[in-house]
Amino acid sequence: MTSLQPARAPRAPRRGPANRLPPERRIAEIIAAARALLAERGYENCVISDIAERAGVVEGTIYRYFENKRDLFIKVAESWFEELLGQQEDVAHVAGTQERLRRTIRRALSIIRHEPALTRFVLMELRPDPDYKNLRLYRLNRAFVSGVMQVLKEAHAKGEIDGALSLPLLRDMIFGAIEHQTWAFLREEGDFSVDETTDGITAVVFRGMQPVSVGAAGADDMAARMERMEAAIARIEAR
Amino acid sequence: MTSLQPARAPRAPRRGPANRLPPERRIAEIIAAARALLAERGYENCVISDIAERAGVVEGTIYRYFENKRDLFIKVAESWFEELLGQQEDVAHVAGTQERLRRTIRRALSIIRHEPALTRFVLMELRPDPDYKNLRLYRLNRAFVSGVMQVLKEAHAKGEIDGALSLPLLRDMIFGAIEHQTWAFLREEGDFSVDETTDGITAVVFRGMQPVSVGAAGADDMAARMERMEAAIARIEAR
DNA sequence: CTTTGTAATGAACTGGCCTCATTAGACCGC
DNA sequence: GCGGTCTAATGAGGCCAGTTCATTACAAAG
């Protein structure tokens, strides 16, 4: 309760040579070092002093440019993800809803497959955070997700999606499936095939969103009735 | 490298009265305290000393019964989840695949809705862990998930699921959708309706798993069969 | 060459997890 | 009741990672 100064003793730090750099470059170097370390150890196991060492700098310097460890890694994730988005192929020219869906799904799986460390950090550390929505990363991610939403919207406009379905729900099923299919991989329990997983998810989603000319609940009932009718007709004709 | 003893100075701790309890009860009290704190603060913000205080015990005592903080909370999650599983309604008597699906999905959403702290901890802290699969919790969770798998398997046996679909993929889509639909809630950004979400997910999954002859890509198949039937009827009528 | 702004330093601080030498409550046989 | 023994409980302190800040020194401008 007494906030009387702990009277930080005056210090006279001995010095090594200070390698002075323009802020922009120093920031870039720190981010690069942190990113490399994140890739090989994961967030929890990244120690500031190691990042500092790898960046050829001292711990305190990092705090000159970043509020704290978390802030640093948010910046890391943002620049990393931004880089990946840049490589994104444009899907606008591709014809056919199913093929367009496939490509965007494939893209997501491919990122996960090639950048598990980044994925883990974003999915586990950042997304659950109360102010995740305020991060630039959230907006970057939305930009990515909007690719899928675009495809869905256009399909919807063309009447290829059953009117009763909610587009966000379809979107969640797609990304939910992507995540669940890759958890084992992210836990380093084994590999997965981008192509096979892509095909599986695409198939179920595409099938699931089709408009049904009859009421959904009655679909199997309808099938049964149809079968009975066909059988009856066959009998009649056989007479 | 020199592991020469830091020569821990001999101490003579002053004592408060020690409330001696049979291990089982002490463990139960610590777990209860930790669970209450987990519910109100989340894992990261739970400090051992606070748990100790709430359990009416000193920090060191906790380490008598639990290896470390993580171990303690794993036990918390396990007992908590076990308790929830006990309340699970049996779905075996319910007729109809769709309704059975709906109930198991509803159950999962209901747990998330009522125990967000537990959910967050399990999904974020435990599931990503490399040895998640060795935890008792993993098996408990499998028991829960197997409810859905059971429904899917029986539906599959009855020919209600397209042969080309993978059951695990369907399962992942279900739970993936559940999770994605609830992330905002888990970040405390707002509530969600258990019933509406249940219906949405159930509808898409049910529709998505239909064999082609009735649903989905079968719409035109359906039309073709209809045409054949109409033609047959015309023939019959013409007789 | 001096001034001045600021990049960089590194010792010290903080707080949370965890250890362990020590104490003392409770049960037991006499 | 009474010492002996087992073990629950204690709490000071170790440890380590994140963070702060008074100080230093580099480099560009005057």
TrEMBL record, chains A, B:
The keyword DNA-binding applies. Keywords: DNA-binding. InterPro entries: Homeodomain-like_sf (IPR009057), HTH-type_TetR-like_transc_reg (IPR050109), HTH_TetR (IPR001647), KstR2_TetR_C (IPR041490), Tet_transcr_reg_TetR-rel_C_sf (IPR036271). It comes from the Bacteria. One of its GO terms (molecular function) is transcription cis-regulatory region binding. Residues 47-66 bind DNA. Residues 24-84 form the HTH tetR-type domain. Residues 1-20 are annotated as: Disordered. This is AcrR family transcriptional regulator.
